[in-house]
Amino acid sequence: MEETIHIPVLKEEVLNYLACGAKKIFVDGTVGGGGHAKAILEASKPNGFLIGLDVDDEALVVAEKNLDNYRGRFILKKSNYAEMAKILMELGFEKVNGILLDLGLSSLQLGTPQRGFSFLQTGPLDMRMDKSNSLTAAQIVNHWPEFRLREIIKEFGEEKWAVRIAKKIIEYRNKKPIETTTQLAEIIANAIPKKYWPKRIHPATRTFQALRIVVNNELENLKQFLNQALNLIISGGRLVIISFHSLEDRIVKTTFRIWAKEKKAKILTKKPVRPSEKEIAINPRSRSAKLRAIEII
């Protein structure tokens, strides 16, 4: 487990598009276990500086340990990247040279059953990245009305079987509460006719994605960050965002295109950068990653 926690997705591409170097200041808005942060600090020796943000307390503990050799060159803060402007102001930074967001789940989160992100191991239906938040996946599946379940599964999971899945969830919870990840995954799998199960992913994948997005307010956080991003990066600085599903990627792509049209930024990735087959073999989590980058004008 410890060996997989810190594998950063598209590491060399991130360093290249961020244009890492000495005397530069970077923000890793989703620092996780510190994989990308460590690579950025190494590539910006001897005096590059990094601010690492995350809402996950457990991730910040791991990152602190992982970055121990770079003490004095980084600050870690518990914060959502949507609050980045406020945090930078509090820390006394007006603008930075580069910002990275890796919007995927970390191996630490996926590999800890108690966090409730994975349907491959039995755990409570939690899915909170920030444990101080009150809303959990269990509350949604056990208490939200059928029409709301149907809406979020269709909209945020892009799941064509949303109607059947929502119906099955209601039928099941009318008999007893849905308490575990594997329990929910089985309900979802039974709602979809087996001949229509997706070939490359588990039938519960899209519904779990939808629940996680709602629990963590993920798309709104991304939009809120993008509304302030241009004011946080110096002219010639870079913004790199790695997304893992089409909803996030669509928001990033559309925003970057608007900025390019308005001559506020230059798109560095005409098409999203994808991991190589070699990287996917080493780190299967990277399979659906898409990296987009811009340079601020």
UniProtKB/TrEMBL annotation:
Main location: cytoplasm
Name of the protein this chain belongs to: Ribosomal RNA small subunit methyltransferase H
Taxonomic source organism: Desulfofervidus auxilii
Matches recorded under NCBIfam families: 16S rRNA (cytosine(1402)-N(4))-methyltransferase RsmH
Alphabetic keyword roster: Cytoplasm, Methyltransferase, rRNA processing, S-adenosyl-L-methionine, Transferase
Function statement: Specifically methylates the N4 position of cytidine in position 1402 (C1402) of 16S rRNA.
Binding positions (S-adenosyl-L-methionine): G34, G35, H36, D54, Y81, D102, Q109
Name of the gene encoding the protein in the UniProt record: rsmH
Catalytic activity: cytidine(1402) in 16S rRNA + S-adenosyl-L-methionine = N(4)-methylcytidine(1402) in 16S rRNA + S-adenosyl-L-homocysteine + H(+)
EC top class named in words: transferase
Stated family: Belongs to the methyltransferase superfamily. RsmH family.
HAMAP family in the cross-refs: 16SrRNA_methyltr_H
SUPFAM superfamilies named among the record's database cross-references: Putative methyltransferase TM0872, insert domain, S-adenosyl-L-methionine-dependent methyltransferases
InterPro entries: RsmH, SAM-dep_MeTrfase_MraW_recog, SAM-dependent_MTases_sf
Keyword Aminoacyl-tRNA synthetase included in the entry's annotation: no
